[in-house]
Amino acid sequence: VTSDSSIADIASAGDDAGCTVMVCADTSVSTVVSGETNPNQTLNPVREVVVVDSTVDRYQDLLADLLAQSGTDRELVVVTLDANQDGVEQITDLLSQFDDVAAIHFMTEGSGGAIKLGNTWLNSLNLAGYAADIAHWGDALASGGDLLFYAGDLAATAPGRDLVDGLRALTAVDVAASVDRTGSARWGGDW
Question: Residue 56: what pLDDT?
């Protein structure tokens, strides 16, 4: 769950970067610009969605880094997953509201070929159980859209690459995942 102060900080960082940022806590949607919430703003069209697992250490720093790389033509929707619910289901419900999204960024824990989404560890072994839900994620993307996973070194291992390949097959879109630590250089990452 994102606190009001972190929402204001994230929105302020987005405003400083010149992009629009919508922050969604617990997968409910509200718009935040310069720290003010506007729950009535429409979501479509949205350029990029950022899905954050709230258990990621210093996820606010990762978001700030992503926003710092944003141009004035980017519109980001930031969604914080409820750590007590199935993240795959949360993401599927959320993405059913969108189309023509350029990219979906996932900021989550990655370990041993698995990614943490809410209270679910998704891996190549349980991927088939979520196939119907995950197949719909690609429906939210524009032609040429991407799924981008910032999840430790997920693609550095064979099980991680199997998961990435499985996600690619289910969604029929490009899927990218890091092969090394992702995030701010000040925390040992590669940005």
Answer: 85
Strands of the chain, DSSP E: 20-25, 31-33, 36-38, 48-53, 75-81, 101-107, 110-111, 114-117, 120-123, 141-150, 174-177
Give per-residue pLDDT as tens, 10-66.
Answer: 444 444 444 344 444 444 443 333 233 344 444 444 489 999 998 888 778 777 777
- Taking the C-alpha atoms of residue 78 and residue 190, their distance in angstroms, rounded to an integer, is 22
Q: Could you tell me if 98 and 141 are in contact, meaning their C-beta atoms sit under 8 angstroms apart?
A: no
Question: Which amino acid type is present at position 42?
Answer: T
Six token digits for residue 84? 């007590």
Complete DSSP assignment for 89-123: HHHHHHHTT--SEEEEEEE--EETTEEEEBTEEEE
Q: What does the block give as tokens for 59?
A: 């996820």
Q: Give the integer Cα–Cα distance in Å for 172 and 177.
A: 16
CA distances from 100 to 25, 48, 107, 140, 146 (A): 22, 9, 21, 6, 11
* Cross-strand pairs, 101: 141
pLDDT at 154 over 60: yes
167 within 8 A of 134, measured Cβ to Cβ: yes
- Number of Cβ atoms within 10 Å of the Cβ of 61: 16
In Å, what is the CA distance from 32 to each residue of 8, 19, 29, 53? 7, 11, 10, 19
CA–CA dist 4, 14 (Å, integer): 15
